[in-house]
Amino acid sequence: MSADSLDPAFAGSVDAAESADRADRPRPVGRGEKVRAAVLAAVLRELVETGYAALTVDQVAQRAGVHKTTVYRRWKDRDTLVVDALTDHIAADIPIPDTGSVAEDLELLARGLVGWLGSPVGRAVVTTMLSDAVRVPEIADARRRIFHDRTLRAAPVVARAIERGELPPGTDATELIKDLVAPIYFRVLITGEPVDTGTADRAAAAVLAAAAARRDA
């Protein structure tokens, strides 16, 4: 039976039901979002395989399976493309734990950083942020924002520990998180020493001991 031959009231109810059903369905990921994800993933792979100095928009476009004009419609040049890729990756790379124990949370945070720094993408990202690329104002600014945002994202670990009485009131979350990651970055970037879960656990124990000493002072 055609829609034209349906009773008008019934046809209206069918149309309404179909409209409601369509509204309940999840919207498909748009092509623009898929292209953006593919391009940013391609940037990271190029940073891993060739490094910042050798990265070109042509190579990124080829790896992402898009035309370079598609890239230039969204990103004005190579550096804005790299900044977007770095920022997008850092925003989701290390989950923030909430185990109910500050000792476990800090260990997991530190272990997550160790694991990321040991991964090909992690090494490439850090190398890019500390290489000649930092002479580019946009990338230098991105580096500052990335490290600042990462510290802020981890701050709730400290706030929850204060609420549970595991850390003394007034503990500076930003400084504690910086103290946690500093020995890990020092080994990786300055001395070149290897880092592992033991390094992470010692860093967590050290900041907890320092916090306890301040509470007992």
UniProtKB/TrEMBL annotation:
Residues 19-29 have a biased composition (Basic and acidic residues). Keywords: DNA-binding, Transcription, Transcription regulation. InterPro entries: Homeodomain-like_sf, HTH-type_TetR-like_transc_reg, HTH_TetR, Tet_transcr_reg_TetR-rel_C_sf, TetR_C. SUPFAM superfamilies: Homeodomain-like, Tetracyclin repressor-like, C-terminal domain. GO terms for molecular function: DNA-binding transcription factor activity; transcription cis-regulatory region binding. PROSITE patterns: HTH_TETR_2 (PS50977). It comes from the Bacteria. Residues 33-93 form the HTH tetR-type domain. This is TetR/AcrR family transcriptional regulator.
